[in-house]
Design goal:
It is built from 15 helices and twelve strands. By secondary structure, it is α/β, with parallel strands linked by helices. The chain folds into three domains: 5-86, no CATH class; 117-364, Aspartate Aminotransferase, domain 2, CATH 3.40.640; 378-496, Aspartate Aminotransferase, domain 1 (Alpha-Beta Complex), CATH 3.90.1150. The chain has a seven-stranded mixed β-sheet with strand order 2-8-7-6-5-3-4, sandwiched between helices. A five-stranded mixed β-sheet has the order 1-11-12-10-9. Strand 11 (450-457) and strand 12 (463-470) form a beta hairpin. This is Pyridoxal-dependent decarboxylase.
Length: 498
């Protein structure tokens, strides 16, 4: 029996462990039942049904109810599981969002029950040392040496923000540390070079850092969304005397094509002009595990900072994002002495925390679940899973190219596939875009499939809505892909009245 109200048990106490066992059984039953009831990657019914499900699970009342209820907790578990997106379903191909390993999910439970933090030694000594060890190993993956440093973050957007924070500090240091004195009165115009296909978080980070979104200069790309180094060079050489290049942001695995900017060429450019090179490898880091795909990341070790996620292509629960820097001294702008957290005499005797590596103070132990996946799957296993997802994308692309009514944009570089449902001859571009958008929504509302969408310019340069598949489930079969594409084609024919 689960105690409620003032008698509710704390997870770490003996009575709490007993209740945790009972609740875990409830949660596992909810997971199993949900897979049977759901029938697809998401429950059918669309947004209105999801709103109604939350209302029903809460009994139509408030979360902070006058009368606490163990039964409501059970109903909440069941509703959450039923309405969760099933990332193990082969038709859940909308997002760079992976199903985690069982080991990492169990680690997440243990981490939650113990609730360790990384802001003070006494808040989680093992968790602190595990993150230090993991960061060193992750830095070595990308080719950084003993001087490297880094931190785990809540996501790729924050990792990019931190990489650009360090680049800002270095680029503007001649006029004083920005973190100490601010940007006001500086006779310079900071500039960040990023491709036109770079993640939106780059411009948002520039705004957060006081540089302004207008500081981001968009470098033209080729037809696959890869930055043109010649154009980047032309832009740098054309800067006025007061324009200061803060960073070149390269993308390794763009959100649409999964394309990789030419890292060796951009590293040469950055070195020549003394510009910080930040690589957003949030998605593309998966290539590093595959001997066949790893050359896509050649030159990564020449970057000054690299951001990547293991909750995209690492089979670990979110959040599992990483920022590593080639020289950890650039992280000193985060140093903070708080007498109640990291007094100097404690730190001198080894009672050191990670307060000076992160934008956060209280911070969860994400390294624990990441370590669980890495120890369980291993390097060869990770490579096999990456290759399996790559082959799925190649197979899907081949089937799309051969199908009537479907048009492939390009062969996949990693594990994303972009295509569209073609309208009848003479169909206006706007109507064709509306058809593709409607196909996606219909498949979601019916609970049949979860696809992403993007815009790709047509022959006349007008952006058209396209559909996108993202393969991150190594267990998906060719038969699963065939079934998914049949559902897409059937939905298109139904909506087009054909």
């Amino acid at each position: 029996m689960i105690s409620t109200g003032r008698n509710a048990a704390l997870a770490g106490r003996p009575e709490g462990l007993e209740q945790l066992r009972s609740l875990l059984d409830t949660a596992l039953r909810a997971l199993g039942d949900a897979a049977l009831k759901r029938g697809g990657p998401v429950a059918p019914g669309g947004p209105e049904a999801a709103v109604a499900a939350v209302h029903e699970a809460l009994g139509g009342g408030r979360l902070l109810a006058d009368e606490p209820s163990a039964q409501r907790v059970t109903e909440l578990f069941e509703a959450y599981a039923r309405w969760a997106v099933d990332l193990t379903h082969p038709s859940a191909v909308a997002r760079m969002q992976c199903a985690p390993t069982a080991a990492s999910a169990a680690a997440e439970l243990l981490a939650a029950a113990l609730n360790q933090s990384l802001h003070a030694w006494e808040s989680g000594p093992f968790a602190l040392e595990l993150e230090r060890r993991l960061v060193r190993e992750l830095a070595s993956w990308v080719g950084f040496g003993a001087q490297a440093g880094g931190t785990l973050t809540p996501g790729g957007s924050i990792s990019n923000l931190m990489g650009l924070l360090f680049s800002r500090e270095r680029a503007l240091k001649d006029t004083g540390a920005v973190s100490a004195t601010g940007l006001a009165g500086r006779p310079v115009r900071p500039r960040i070079l990023a491709s036109a296909a770079a993640h939106f978080s780059v411009a948002r980070a520039a705004g957060f850092l006081g540089l302004g979104r207008s500081a981001v200069v968009k470098v033209p790309v080729d037809d696959r969304g890869r930055m043109l180094t010649g154009e980047a060079r032309r832009i740098v050489e054309g800067f006025d005397a007061d324009e200061v290049p803060v960073a070149v942001v390269a993308t390794a695995g763009t959100t649409d094509h999964g394309s990789f900017d030419p890292l060796p060429e951009l590293a040469d450019l950055a070195a020549e002009y003394g510009i910080w090179l930040h690589v957003d490898a949030a998605y593309g880091i998966g290539a590093l595990f595959s001997p066949r795909l790893a050359p896509l990341l050649d030159g990564l070790g020449r970057a000054d900072s690299v951001a990547f996620d293991l909750h995209k292509f690492g089979w670990t629960p979110a959040s599992s994002s990483v920022l590593v820097v080639r020289d950890r001294t650039h992280m000193e702008c985060l140093d903070e002495q708080a007498v109640y957290l990291n007094p100097s005499d404690d730190e001198s005797l080894g009672f050191t925390a990670l307060l000076g590596t992160s934008l956060q103070t209280t911070r969860r132990s994400d390294a624990f679940k990441m370590a669980a996946t890495l120890l369980t799957v291993g390097r060869e296993g990770m490579g096999d899973w990456v290759d399996a997802c790559h082959e799925q994308a190649r197979y899907a692309a081949g089937r799309i190219a051969a199908a009537d009514g479907l048009e492939l944009v390009a062969d996949p570089l990693l594990t994303t596939v972009i295509f569209r449902c073609a309208g009848a001859d003479g169909t206006p571009a706007a109507d064709e875009s509306a058809l593709n958008a409607a196909v996606r929504r219909k498949l979601m509302a019916d609970g049949r499939a979860l696809l992403a969408r993007t815009n790709v310019a047509g022959p006349d340069g007008t952006p058209r809505v396209h559909l996108k598949l993202v393969f991150l489930n190594p267990t998906t079969t060719e038969a699963d892909i065939d079934a998914l594409l049949r559902d897409v084609s059937a939905a298109a024919r139904e909506l087009a009245g054909r």
